Amino acid sequence: METNKLSVLVIGAGAVGGITAALMKKDGYDVEIVSKHPDYALLIKEKGLSVSGASGNLKVKMPAYASISEVKKKKDLILLATKATDMIEAAEEIKDILKENGSVISMQNGICVDDLATVLGMSRVIGCITGWGATMDSQGELTMTSSGDFIIGYPVKQPDDYLKSIGHVLSSVVPVKLTDNLMGHLYAKLIINSCITSLGAICGLYLGEMLAKKKVRKIFIEIIREAVLVADKMNIRLEIFGDKLDFNKYIKGNNFIAELRRHIFIMVIGFRYRKLKSSSLQSLERGKPTEVDYLNGYVVRNGEKLKIDVPVNKAIVRIIHEIEQKKRKISYDNFNDPAFDKFNK
């Protein structure tokens, strides 16, 4: 396949989508982008996206649209970089502009490939784990905050030459790895997001301040325990997250030393990324829904199917929904919910 001739559409001009589109365009690919904000789409088209950080400094203009309906030419490859909450609506809209042999890459947090497949068909979906960090400083000003990689794979089949060619396209951004265990990678990242992103949304604290508190660390550990139990029953072979965190080994052992080791590991994460602000918290502050149903909610739904009790993940989903519904405020006091009483000891 001549990858340089592929027509590519990126939907979502946030930090990850914008940087991905800009670096691919810089490499000579035929890239267009959709932002649901008309003023932002106009800015990208007329002034371009400015990217800095681990990717280097560049400014790139490209065709940009305020809605998918404005895109007229069919595409070989569509990168879906929306929030999970906007994913299905976007998937419905792209059906008419995706070529018959084209593919859609799911770049969402959480496990979304099954829901996407209900709209587009499993054979057209590629899963993607984003292993690098990014932030939008302002409209059109994007920073790659940390280097890393993409991991891509099919939901139900082995990597093939076509997937290799898609990997080549994405390598304009960061190195790309192909996997035959997509669910293992997706679920591993889901566990981390279910801890860091969801707990941050509940209390409103930066990661360092949040993980300095012993009660939060205990809840963090229990989220992992419940999620690993569900993964095991689902026959998901968990991958080592970031080549460092083996979840099965992490939760192994019930003695004092094992528990101390777990807490120290979390405190190190908290210190290293102490200024990290939860993406779900940022959504709540903008009055937008979170992705909790694709994170802790995925654990809860599958736990219920398998008759596995996951009370901590269930409580987190409930509390975040209550915040979304304005029945609660974002506050550390939310950790005083009766569901977390056992972590007071």
Description:
The chain is α/β, with parallel strands linked by helices and 345 residues long. It has two domains: 3-180, NAD(P)-binding Rossmann-like Domain (Rossmann fold); 184-344, N-(1-d-carboxylethyl)-l-norvaline Dehydrogenase, domain 2 (Orthogonal Bundle). The chain has 13 helices and twelve strands. An eight-stranded mixed β-sheet has the order 5-2-1-6-7-8-11-12, sandwiched between helices. Strands 4-3-10-9 form a four-stranded mixed β-sheet, with helices on one face. Helix 6 (182-203) packs across helix 13 (311-324) and helix 12 (296-305) packs across helix 13 (311-324). The longest helix is centred in the middle third of the chain and has 22 residues, at 182-203. The chain is globular, with a radius of gyration of 20 Å.
Q: What characteristic shape results from the CA principal axes?
A: globular
Query: What is the topology, as strand order, of the major beta sheet?
Result: 5-2-1-6-7-8-11-12
Rg, rounded, reads: 20 Å
Integer tally of domains: 2
